[in-house]
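Hi R.,

Quick one: here's the Multifunctional CCA protein sequence you asked about.
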Amino acid sequence: MQIYKVGGAVRDRLLGRAVSDIDWLVVGATVEQMQAQGYRPVGADFPVFIHPKSGEEYALARTERKSGRGYGGFVFHASPEVTLEQDLIRRDLTINAMAEDEHGNLCDPYHGKVDLDKRILRHVSPAFAEDPLRVLRVARFAARYAPLGFTVAADTLELMRQISASGELQALTAERSWKEIERALMEDQPQVFIQVLRACDALKQLMPELDALFAAPLSEGEHTLAALQQAALHGQPLHVRWACLTQALGQAIKAVNQRFKAPRECQELALLVGEMQGHCQRAPELDAPTLLELLQKFDVYRRPQRLEDFIAACEMVARGRQALEGDGYPQGDYLRGAAAAAKAVDVKSLVDKGLTGQALGEALKTERLNALQAYTQAN
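And here's the predicted structure, written out as tokens:
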């Protein structure tokens, strides 16, 4: 039995990056031997075990063959006869197909270290094309390592085009696709993820609505990527980044939300930004009734953070269009001031007058409208 550290832990150590998770690979062992040493089996697809003390996962070396459509259409085979090289050749990229033995010696049968030094994302073998999820994974790695100068190898990009043309991307589940999208959006340069998907024709398969923006005469696609890049530069959370990515899709936002089963927070903000961002960009021009409608739509009295997230997304869009000068975003400050004016209305005084139900609601609306009219006149 030989135990190796494999995959991302080896790659990131060689890059000088922090290593968070470690994947362990066991060569030359049986299920029975693992259990005899106290490892607990988990998972049904292929043998993975939990270390009795550290709690880390250890997988038996395996081979696999394509048996159906999609990323799940594989049959796995694990046995003591499977070699390290046989296991590594089924991995996606050469930089992920390296291993270290217990003495720290590098095992690199597919020249991942060379590609690491050349800053190249290259597939290990033709088997890469059997798993459509790898198209998204490579695009995500491109986004992660773009700050280090990594690019996708031309022959790998061609394989990704072949996968896109095959229709295999349609076999991906919403959950698996979203997991890759979510992780990619949280990278330092998430716009590279979209650029790579476009380059291999995957974007038109996964998000044709977004792909169509790049054919628009007003360069809406490039503005969208610039907004997404600004969101990353400003450390915005996932739901703000998703709203920046989808804000120009109009009526298609709902369909894209549902296609990938985006989390509720992402879906809600995306719809609000898509519908209302025009109001935000010209906030000082809005009259009191429009301001009141906007604040009520955001439920600003009970969910103030949602307005802040909306303002953040609209600011990133404005910065992506280079429509801002300096560090401030006066439209956002104006909306915050309007929200403060509306929330300053004393509900208790209306209740003390004996108002309830619909009468209270109408009186409260009138008072808030008066407060906003005074605010617009003063500002």
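The longest helix spans residues 357-378.

Cheers,
M.
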